[in-house]
Amino acid sequence: MGKEAKQMKSLFHEVIEYVRLNHAESIDKAYEYFWDKENPEDYMGGNALKIGFHNFEDWMLYDHKVNEEGETFIDLYIKNKKDLPEDAVQLLNRCRDSVVSLYEVTSVSKDKRVLLKDVLLESEADIREKALTHGLKKGDLFATRILKLDGNDVMSGCVYPYLPTQKKQVLAYISKQFSRYVRNVKKNGTMREYLKDYGDVFNLIWMNFIIEPKEKEE
Prior knowledge:
Elements: H1 3-22, H2 24-34, H3 46-62, H4 73-80, H5 86-96, E1 100-108, E2 114-118, E3 123-127, H6 130-133, E4 141-149, E5 152-155, E6 160-162, H7 167-184, H8 191-197, H9 201-211
Antiparallel strand pairs: 1-2, 1-4, 2-3, 4-5, 4-6
């Protein structure tokens, strides 16, 4: 793990702790919104629940708008942490602008290097950290946040796993919601802007697949 990756991992936990100490009520509201007023413990457990909770923390820090000014918890942390080093500020700002998108594994090499295709933003990511790519195979489909750290593509740790057979359904739902976004929220909005404003869409899709699994997916 490189210097920036280690620093960002530490900063992530520091911001989480800041939010817990100073914005506990906001966490409850964000949690209710993220899970669409459902209780995830009612329909998932074990590893899935752990993944879901980490996904929530990731979204809450990077994407959730805390106030009418559109600030995130990262913004508030930077504003209130007066002794924060400049390199930490720059790193947080850079990572804050990232988005969660939908990725498909296009190849896995013998050294576990994984190439990912961003299905929505038409870009590619090259993941080389074995701890994050273990078990992945060509055709796997999932949503995640890719950060550029130490000059490398790195997964933030959040992941919304889907079956390859669910790809059409996922894309159809996002396309429908993006059309509504352009029509009702931001007339000239881009897909990237939509994903930044409504990154929780991947959790809603993932959650619905778990609550209402379909045996015969096309």
